[in-house]
Amino acid sequence: MSFIKLYLAPGKEHSLKRFHPWVFSGAIRKADGEPVEGDIVEVYSSKREFLGLGHYAPGSIAVRIFSFEQVEPDYTFWKNKVQQAYDYRKRLHLIGHEQTDVYRLLYAEGDGAPGLIIDVYKDTAVVQTHTVGMYNARQMVAQALQEVLGSALKAVYDKSAESLPPKASVKAENGYLFGESSGGVVVTENGNQFFVDWESGQKTGFFIDQRENRDLLARYSKGKSVLNTFCYTGGFSVYALNAGAKEVHSVDVSKKAIELTVKNGELSQAPERHEAFAMDTFEFLKGKEERYDVIILDPPAFAKSQNVRHNALMGYKRLNAEAMKKIKPGGILFTFSCSQVVDKYLFSNTVMAAAIEAGRSIKIMHHLSQPADHPISIFHPEGEYLKGLVLMVD
After folding, report:
1. Which of 81, 137, 170, 394 is spaced 20 to 30 A from 315 at the CA atom?
2. Residues forming a β-bridge with 174
């Protein structure tokens, strides 16, 4: 099988030789054909050294490398990718775990498959492709999942319609690539139960990346008054309730999210101590003078590109300052950013600016990130999108 060859300008090969998987459009000097979105292309240096094999896309990131070796990207290749990802999760003791049956099976660049996400909810795998190239390979991925997971897998659901670029050259429709399901199931995470609806929920249905951070929150929740903002389906809320919080308030602007939060609260050990509000977080915080012992700030990505990063930082500063003003002395603040363009140092500095504005003395208790089933390749630091701090507010 032959592929279009792309040749880089002199000196532009260094990042690929360090195994960084992105080729920017400005680095490409010439091509021996006209690739279209989704094509598999070979990338060469200006001296015609082979550098990598990847998927082509129009835009700033022109190629996402999925192999730094000259291979045939056939079914066996993709099955090996899935197998390697599965074996890694097995080493993490996430597969076959008695207290957890929801985990990320494959995480894009972290697992050498840029543009591909696979989450497992009990016996259903939910696939999201973020590039046309990976979308074109989805049937092979679904077949590989059946072979690797065997009888533990009952269905594979493709949810790429929301994740592909808005102007993608293919029109994706969500649907089952293998088997079928009711579209929702009660899963268990660290012994806590949640209803997950991958067909109509955000992303793949649940924010798996906060699993360990929710477990940490439980340690600080017993007997406390807890506020969970931007709660989505109430992940932090359920952990706090099951850990013995005296009251938990969940806030999200989405009425649909609040309905799921209420449903999940009812699955907890203490639903009577839970109240949910479909409100804007800033509106909710008005008038709440030092009411809560623990506050969680887990907003959606305020910035998805560099050109709006400044506005995002102002948003994070305002949000954190408001929470710091409202929390009880000695209270604990869990604060997060999932904006990839805001790194952990910039986020920490923004939170420091918020502390100065709030006039409160702050101690950093924990630095938080994403769990090990969302691995960060050492060659691709951009894969670290989730960053968080746990703060003691005096």
Report:
1. 394
2. none
Strands 327-337 and 292-297: parallel
Q: Which residues are catalytic?
A: 338
Q: What is the pLDDT of residues 260-279, one digit of tens each?
A: 999 999 999 999 999 999 99
The whole-angstrom separation of Cα 15 and Cα 17 is 5
**What domains, with CATH codes, occur in the chain?**
4-67 (2.30.130.10), 75-183 (3.30.750.80), 207-393 (3.40.50.150)
In 3-state terms, what secondary structure has residue 335? strand
Taking only the tens place, the pLDDT of each residue in 210-221 is: 999 999 999 999
Considering the entire predicted model, what is its pTM? Answer: 0.95
- In the block, residue with structure tokens 């056939």: 74
What are the φ/ψ torsions at residue 364 (nearest 5 degrees)? -85, 120
DSSP 3-state assignment of 117?
strand
**Segment 11-64, tens digit of pLDDT:** 999 999 999 999 999 999 999 999 999 999 999 999 999 999 999 999 999 999
**Beta strands at 102-107 and 116-121: parallel, antiparallel or unpaired:** antiparallel
User: What type of residue is 99?
Assistant: Q
Q: Which two tokens stand for residue 208?
A: 């798996």
